[in-house]
Amino acid sequence: MERVLPFRFEEKEGVFWLLDQRKLPLEEVWVPVRTAREMAEAIRAMVVRGAPAIGVSAGFGMVLAHLRGENPEEADQLLRRSRPTAVNLFHALDRMRAHWGDLEGSLEEAWALWREVEATEKAISLHGAKVLRGQVLTHCNTGPLATGGYGTALGAIVEAHRQGRVAHVWVDETRPYLQGARLTAYELKKAGVPATLITDNMAGFLMAQGRVDAVIVGVDRMALNGDFANKIGTYALAVLAHHHGVPFYAALPLASVDPKFSTGEGIPIEERPPEEVLELRGVRLAPPGFPAYHPAFDVTPYRFLTGIITEKGVLYPPFEEALRDALGLT
Ligand code: MRU
Fold it and tell me: How many domains does the chain have?
């Protein structure tokens, strides 16, 4: 399978190159990032996006800070303020903190982070593939572009297809940013997996017809009880799946669990510019001056989940006990 990675690090020049995800799938443009400040801006602007990919990028952002003589504390703060919801960003920066002032150490840690993402996602894909079959529906983008590895939910889908378990994928376009239409469709096409694009509001119709055997999504931050924040629209999909008795899975590395939250209440939800709802590639959709609201994530209660797919296996209810166990918490 062809795997498109969202970034590469040119160690000799000390430049982190990002594949500009705002331009995909129409253009493949690589953007050089030379400082932590530039990295924070690239994450904010969604040149790179997806929870694990943001984490790895922030890790290398700290390497760039050391290479370019930026103050590590300021660099850390700039990166922390880039996007609020995916906990992977904060995990990565917490890990990099131990290497402030040490270029060698920070470089080793950033590479280690990236390698861990790859290893955990290989495991997630294999565990996830076991529970998928037939026609699967997914939301947003959770493949290599969102992670720098094999992908979480999409990794499991591609693996299940390779094993002959999944025949076809319904791809939610994922309004308003269209990660599904632009990025998941691009990745599934490259992976050679049969798939069809739908608008988000078609999922219920398909489920009612019995044309969805499972739903699988990624996670930006999961609380200890299994409630989780993911791309806006996930909650509605979970309610629909529950109503129609369709199995609903979340796939994530355990690094996406934030034990500081016992429930999903209070997980910071990013609000993005209303223009992303009001316009499509610069073309206005609504009457001039009309307001729009754009929460970029929502929170899905654990009770709608059939299982949580992690690198340690598929967890089943009671989720809090299973998550504590997997995380080694007492
Ligand atoms: O706003 P984005 O594109 O960064 O949101 C991405 C998602 O919501 C993904 O589902 C999530 O990060 C999981 S990625 C493996």
Answer: 2
215 part of a folded domain: yes
pLDDT in tens, 181-210: 999 999 999 999 999 999 999 999 999 999
Q: For position 41, which CATH number holds?
A: 1.20.120.420
Domain that holds residue 100: 7-120
Quote the ligand 1 centre to 317 CA distance (angstroms). Answer: 24
CA distance 90 to 76: 10
- Which residue among 142, 174, 215, 249 is best mutated to probe the pocket of ligand 1, counting the most ligand atoms within 8 A of its Cβ? 142
pLDDT digits (tens, 9 = 90+) for 221-253: 999 999 999 999 999 999 999 999 999 999 999
Examine the domain organization and report whether 111 and 156 are in the same domain.
Answer: no
Q: Could you tell me the pTM of the whole model?
A: 0.97
